[in-house]
């Protein structure tokens, strides 16, 4: 495993940008000190050689292995687009640690934005609660990262959570294929989630869900009966933890199972991010997805290139 920073220590850094920088730099340093040494965070892509291409871009090592000519794409050809869709509803203000789920999610999104910007990828942002909050188109230019960090730093404003609206909006606004990363506790009804995720996938987007959970949500932490307040509705509810604990566990497990089933059926990656877990884990998840995307694109290009070459020679 990679060395990892303590999230509690990380959250004591007031600047969101400094937090993100600390995670990314720790991630890179960890790669060099771990069994993952040599694991590439660059994702080269190839396409078949065509007449007129610059011969200097030929990959001779790949030619030696495949006996076919391939061009290594330049950096500007491999720029990716990623949208971070961040839940800022009232339920995200919960926290049994020294910080809330929202603070963790904001740091998570800032870290991904910082990392992807350093990779010269185009990054966009959408925040939401029961309505859309901020929307910044995916770009890679000076000042854009700062604009995203400012948008992420804004406090919780809304109450409820509406997962469907941001997914519909992203699908409508983003025409070019890319990676959509949904960062949310997913504590909302999921009846129409499958439809909206399926629509994003049908438009060629890769979709990843980083489900942010507080350790205190896995079990009811109340010691004795009392009044509690629903963070989203503001409604006061009398709760006896001994009576409610079994039902809570069953409903929590059912909701989790439904999420996993929906995501599995659609090829959507979903990872649980506990707020006491190192944020670097999210970078590995994103890199793994990007690596698979690149491998799939490379294989498709090589197959197409090989077929074209055979057709041309026949």
UniProtKB/TrEMBL annotation:
Matches recorded under Gene3D superfamilies: von Willebrand factor, type A domain
Signal peptide: none
Residue ranges occupied by any DUF58 domain in the UniProt entry: 45-256
Pfam families associated with the record: DUF58
The protein, known as: VWA domain containing CoxE-like protein
Organism: Rubripirellula reticaptiva
């Amino acid at each position: 495993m990679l060395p990892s920073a303590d999230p509690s220590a990380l959250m004591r850094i007031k600047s969101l940008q400094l937090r993100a920088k600390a995670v990314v730099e720790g991630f890179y340093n960890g790669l060099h000190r771990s069994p993952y040494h040599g694991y590439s965070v660059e994702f080269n892509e190839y396409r078949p050689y065509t007449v007129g291409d610059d011969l200097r871009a030929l990959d001779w090592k790949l030619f030696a292995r495949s006996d076919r000519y391939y061009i290594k794409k330049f950096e500007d050809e491999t720029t990716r687009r990623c949208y971070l869709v961040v839940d800022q509803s009232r339920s995200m203000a919960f926290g049994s640690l020294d910080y809330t789920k929202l603070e963790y999610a904001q740091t998570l999104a800032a870290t991904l934005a910082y990392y992807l910007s350093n990779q010269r990828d185009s990054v966009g942002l959408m925040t939401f609660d029961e309505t859309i909050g901020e929307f910044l188109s995916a770009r890679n230019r000076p000042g854009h990262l700062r604009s995203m960090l400012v948008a992420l730093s804004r406090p919780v404003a809304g109450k409820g959570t509406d997962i469907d609206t941001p997914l519909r909006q992203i699908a409508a606004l983003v025409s070019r294929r890319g990676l959509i990363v949904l960062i949310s506790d997913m504590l909302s009804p999921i009846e129409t989630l499958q439809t909206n995720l399926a629509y994003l996938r049908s438009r060629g987007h890769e979709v990843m869900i980083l489900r942010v959970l507080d350790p205190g949500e896995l079990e009811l932490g109340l010691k004795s009966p009392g009044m509690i307040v629903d963070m989203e509705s503001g409604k006061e509810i009398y709760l006896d933890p001994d009576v409610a604990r079994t039902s809570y566990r069953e409903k929590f497990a059912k909701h989790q199972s439904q999420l996993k089933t929906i995501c599995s059926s659609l090829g959507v990656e979903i990872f649980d991010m506990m707020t006491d877990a190192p944020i670097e884990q999210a970078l590995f998840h994103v890199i793994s997805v990007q690596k698979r995307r690149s491998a799939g694109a490379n294989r498709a290009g090589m197959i197409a290139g090989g077929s074209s070459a055979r057709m041309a020679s026949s």
